[in-house]
Design brief:
Number of helices: 1
CATH topology: Lipocalin
Helix content: 10-25%
Order of helices and strands: HEEEEEEEE
Distance between the termini: 63 Å
CATH architecture: Beta Barrel
Number of strands: 8
Shape: globular
Number of domains: 1
Radius of gyration: 20 Å
Strand content: over 45%
CATH superfamily: Quinohemoprotein amine dehydrogenase alpha subunit, domain 2
C-alpha cells in the first residue's frame, strides 16, 4: 500500500509542470483612455478611463482587468473588465452604489493605439439612460 501511495505522489509531482495554468496570450489593453459618453438623450460628457491587466487572473485569450473611470465633478468609479480576444465587458460602480455595465469591441486606431466603442447601461447610472461610450488610448 505504501508503494502505491509513493508511486501516486511521484506521478503527481512529475505531472505538475504539465498541468500548469496556460499563460495569457491575448492583447494587453492596459493604459489610459480619453472617453466621450453620449446618452440616448443626446447629452455628451467627457471621461478618463484607466485599465490595468491582472496577469495572475488572465489566461490564454482571456484578460482580467481592474478599471477606474473618472467623470468631471463626480467621485471615481471603480470596477473590473473581462476580455476575450477583442471583446470586453466592463462593469464600474460609484461608492454610493450607482453602477453600469458595458460591452465593447476593441480595435487599433490609425495611430496604432487601442480604441473602442461601448454600449452601456445601469438602472441608476447617469439617470438610468443607456448610451454609447467612445474611448481612445492616450
Amino acid at each position: 500500500m505504501k508503494r502505491i501511495g509513493a508511486g501516486l505522489l511521484l506521478a503527481l509531482a512529475l505531472a505538475g509542470p504539465a498541468m500548469a495554468r496556460p499563460v495569457f496570450s491575448g492583447p494587453d489593453f492596459s493604459g489610459q483612455y480619453a472617453c466621450r459618453f453620449l446618452d440616448v438623450g443626446g447629452r455628451e460628457q467627457p471621461a478618463n478611463l484607466m485599465l490595468r491587466l491582472r496577469p495572475e487572473q488572465s489566461r490564454e485569450v482571456h484578460g482580467a482587468y481592474d478599471l477606474r473611470l473618472d467623470l468631471p465633478g463626480r467621485p471615481s468609479l471603480k470596477g473590473h473588465a473581462a476580455a476575450r480576444k477583442l471583446e470586453m465587458a466592463l462593469h464600474y460602480a460609484a461608492p454610493g452604489g450607482e453602477a453600469a455595465t458595458g460591452i465593447a469591441t476593441l480595435r487599433k486606431t490609425k495611430a496604432r493605439r487601442w480604441g473602442f466603442s461601448s454600449f452601456y447601461y445601469g438602472p441608476g447610472f447617469m439617470g438610468g439612460v443607456p448610451g454609447l461610450k467612445e474611448c481612445r488610448q492616450r
